[in-house]
Design brief:
The chain is an alpha+beta fold and about 375 residues long. It has helices at about 20-35, 45, 60-75, 80, 180-185, 205-210, 235-245, 350-355; strands spanning about 60, 85, 105-110, 120, 125-130, 135-140, 140-145, 150-155, 160-165, 170-175, 190, 230-235, 255-260, 275-280, 290, 295-300, 305-310, 310-315, 320-325, 330-335, 340-345, 360. The strands form 6 sheets. Strands 1-19-16-21-14-13 form a 6-stranded antiparallel sheet. Strands 2-3-10-5-8-12 form a 6-stranded antiparallel sheet. Strands 7-6-9 form a 3-stranded antiparallel sheet.
């Protein structure tokens, strides 16, 4: 049995700093034979001074991926593929098929008249519509029609299916899930509906009509689920809200004009493990840099701009997707002096907050901007 190859030592008071000796190496072999080990050989690695993400910043350009996503319609059917998706792979997280941290992302495409089978899983999921007409999602009998930049939930444990009406056009959207997290917790289940499809049990778009009225709550509601009853968040009202808010506030120095999508019953995140937001960068605006625990996936919903992540600049335009790993310095800029830019984002921040792990730090004492690494 081989000895440990690396003894993670640090010459700092309070940290493990044990030098290997022949006697210790033999001791480690004895422990390994018992499926055990000496903590001091790994303590400095498993208890870092600060978060060390295995993920790296990545920009996925829509213009590069779109033709490959569309080509999949010629290669596989929804029936055979289950879901026709091109997933986004972070070089540092390929072992768990994650786009960043413990978050999964993919681009799904469906043609007019296609319907994917109804299924349920323990992972929470969302869809952000990128292009096309006629898309819809059914969640536990609630059918929602979808347009560009609409945001829809398919929460943990719900029966859900997607389709495109026969008179629609090819539709593409981003899928966002916490599959890597749920798998890491060894808690994932998956089921296919026994009828392959579910019946629509409510008026179409009833979730929006019932719960999408700001400041108003239906009398006698009986919603008892832990996720938001407002299963669809429409782009039009969201952008209007950002514009109204921008008229009365300077916004955050780090996030500009940012609104969180919330559960209208609680004011909290839309799902237990995934939060989402939309932010507006005014013409020419450039935020200050900060970092926080928790991973974030962004999609440009409107305009063009750039984001600097750990000193690396990424220029994005509408429908591009990029990720910010946990504890990475980041700042955003609007590349236009005339038009707004908007960024949709989803993250694992609800997990960070629920577990008491959220921390945030400004760049410099008052929050400066990073030097771009050439």
């Amino acid at each position: 049995m081989s000895n440990p190859k690396v003894n993670h030592r640090e010459d700092v008071a309070g940290r493990a700093n044990v030098q290997d000796t022949p006697e210790l190496l033999a001791y480690y072999d004895q422990l390994e034979a018992l499926d055990a080990g000496a903590l001091w050989t790994v303590a400095n690695k498993i208890e870092p001074w600060q978060p060390k993400s295995a993920s790296v910043p990545v920009l996925w350009r829509y213009r590069d991926l779109r033709e490959h996503v569309l080509r999949s319609t010629q290669l596989v059917t929804p029936e055979k593929a289950g879901r026709r998706v091109v997933y986004l792979s972070n070089p540092g997280r390929r072992d768990v098929s994650a786009a960043v941290g413990w978050l999964y992302s993919g681009l799904q495409v469906m043609n007019p008249g296609e319907v994917a089978s109804a299924h349920a899983h323990s992972a929470s999921a969302l869809r952000f519509i990128m292009e096309g007409k006629g898309a819809y999602t059914i969640v536990d009998g609630h059918k929602m029609t979808l347009g560009a930049n609409d945001f829809v939930l398919t929460p943990n444990g719900t029966w859900h299916e997607h389709g495109v009406s026969a008179d629609g056009t090819p539709c593409l959207w981003q899928d966002g899930l916490d599959i890597p997290l749920v798998n890491a917790l060894e808690a994932n289940f998956y089921a296919v509906h026994e009828d392959k499809h579910q019946a629509v049990g409510f008026p179409v778009d009833d979730a929006t009509a019932t719960w999408g009225n700001p400041g108003l709550r239906p009398s006698g509601d009986s919603w008892r689920h832990p996720y938001s009853p407002l299963l669809k968040y429409e782009w039009g009202p969201t952008y209007e809200a950002l514009q109204r808010y921008a008229k009365v506030t300077e916004g955050s120095p780090f996030d500009a004009i940012l609104l969180n999508y919330v559960n209208p019953l609680t004011g909290g995140p839309v799902m237990q493990t995934i939060g989402a937001s939309m932010q507006l960068l005014r013409p020419g605006e450039h935020t200050k840099a900060h970092r926080h625990t928790g991973s974030v996936i962004y999609q440009a919903a409107k305009g063009k701009g750039y984001t600097i992540i750990n000193g690396q600049r990424f220029d994005w335009q509408e429908r591009d997707i990029f990720c910010v790993p946990s504890w990475a310095w980041h700042e955003h800029g609007n590349a236009s002096d005339r038009e707004d830019a908007c960024l949709f984002a989803f993250s694992d921040l609800p997990v960070m907050n629920s577990l008491g792990l959220y921390r945030e730090e400004a760049y410099g004492e008052t929050g400066g901007q990073q030097q771009v690494i050439a």
